[in-house]
Amino acid sequence: MTHDRLAEIPERYRNSTFENYHPKNAQQEKAHSLLQEDPEGSYFLHGPYDCGKTHLLHAQYRTLVLAGVACNVRTTVDLLNEIQRMEFDQDFLSPVFSQVRTRSRYHLFWDDADKVKITDFRAQALHELIDLIYRNCLSLTITSNFSLKELEELEKLPPSVIRRIDAMCKVLEV
User: What is 107-143 written as a DSSP string?
Assistant: First the structure.
């Protein structure tokens, strides 16, 4: 089972660990330290391309998988495809929604949260998911090239989702 979960990591990040992450500045060092000290914590990692956000996300994911914590890793595209399939295929049960609804300990890793064009359906679906994570006191780690304020200003995510993320996650610029 552990091997299957680790296979969810894209090839490029398959070997990402906290040990082989090399911070280049104080912000990256702070993010690295916090995630390594509290891998079950919820984080919103933001910063420019190629600063190590996705490496840290996958290192945290790997740590939790090896510790036996129920978790999934999804890009925005994968997450939205899964949600949309659930809407149109009554026989399909989203692995993410299934975990969020039934687990008392679960962590969702959401990579590239800013890579979405918001429609009413997507806004509602993302709000439902993030709100369930919030209400069930589960964990969430998200990466984005934009800060929460920028995501709201650019209308990349609905304000209700941004408020929940802000309430749940330690916001770290990487």
Answer: EEEEE-TT-----HHHHHHHHHHHHHHHHTT-EEEEE
**Model pLDDT for residues 89-141, shown as the tens digit of each residue:** 989 989 999 999 999 999 999 999 999 888 898 899 999 999 999 999 999 99
Looking at residue 106, the DSSP 8-state letter turns out to be -
Number of residues assigned to the chain = 174
pLDDT confidence tier of residue 157, bands split at 50, 70 and 90 = very high
Instruction: Name all domains of the chain by residue range, CATH numbers in brackets.
Output: 2-10+25-173 (3.40.50.300)
CB 112 within 8 A of CB 144: yes
Tell me the residue type at 67: A
The SS3 call for residue 173 is strand
- Whole-Å CA distances, 22 to 10, 51, 85: 20, 10, 38
> Does the predicted TM-score (pTM) go above 0.90?
yes
Return the sign of the alpha-carbon dihedral for residues 12, 31, 81, 64.
Answer: positive
5-14 long-range contacts, Cβ below 8 Å, gap at least 24? 5/65, 5/71, 6/62, 6/65, 8/72, 8/73, 9/58, 9/61, 9/62, 9/73, 13/54, 13/55, 13/58
Nearest to residue 109, comparing CAs of 77, 62, 61?
Answer: 61
